[in-house]
């Protein structure tokens, strides 16, 4: 993806603005950068420094604000389990721009103002719930702001209000789908589409949700540091996620070298915002892994496309010299008949050696011994390591209303 002259000018304008705003965070980052020197793509890559999550954490609480406090109308915080949270300030324009992008996502998914959107992600400091709702209201559709939890009420409201679109994390969408199946509610709900975000999900999980509910699924992308969910979505029938490059510049880089990878190769998504006011981003390393999809999309959209998120560079674990991602395990599970999408991997250090145990759900009637042996063999053949595979029944692994942690590394506990 190449920067246009307009986009280069937008980046220069942003750097001029943050250098003049008096904020120490930006003053320090750009003290040696003259925006007028950024005339080409190469200048941008050589002169504009990368930004990490830790950089943003260090600016806690409001050190990222690049506008006067009276212009900040809202703050959001990214999820995280360690260190200070990241606080992102938004101006009125930021909120409106985000809603515009989100409404565009709904439109790309074929959702109209006649739809009823059942919104289950959390509200509050997290961007998800309020982002789904703002986009819905911008579109003019009916928002049903449920938030997470209370599955009994979720299912009742879904029936009573005839929700046509479910908005959820993939983990909670699966939980709700399984409850619909268990309770025999398939003929009592009106769902047609699902907008799923916040975490990576594999083909097995996607197909299970789709098959149970009989709906069309869409993969929405975004993160709190960069507005929130809604900066991109896949179009009907296509896996590639369109990124709205009138607001966001996306690079896909080698996680080690920080250099662009060849088109079509997997790398780390790095984001720059063109017009964000409250806390603009410059070359933010997201740790999300994807690849550019070359060529034009059959849908006719000119927005650039990336693959679905394949994992995160910080989800990577090394076991006996092998690099393991969630997608590594999902690749093996997918090849074994009768397996579901649900698994957990536990890595431990036992008797001086690393050991990985994979718990996998299988459907009723599946030969559990054969499934375990096949999975172990396939793992050995494809990745040159032999985990211990333990088979459980459908529903025996815990479900989550938010994100599901699928790899647990206990070696450093």
From TrEMBL:
Coiled coil: none annotated. It comes from the Bacteria. This is Phenylacetate-coenzyme A ligase. Pfam families: AMP-binding, AMP-binding_C_2. Monomer. Its EC number is 6.2.1.30. One of its GO terms (biological process) is phenylacetate catabolic process. Keywords: Ligase, Nucleotide-binding. It comes from Treponema bryantii.
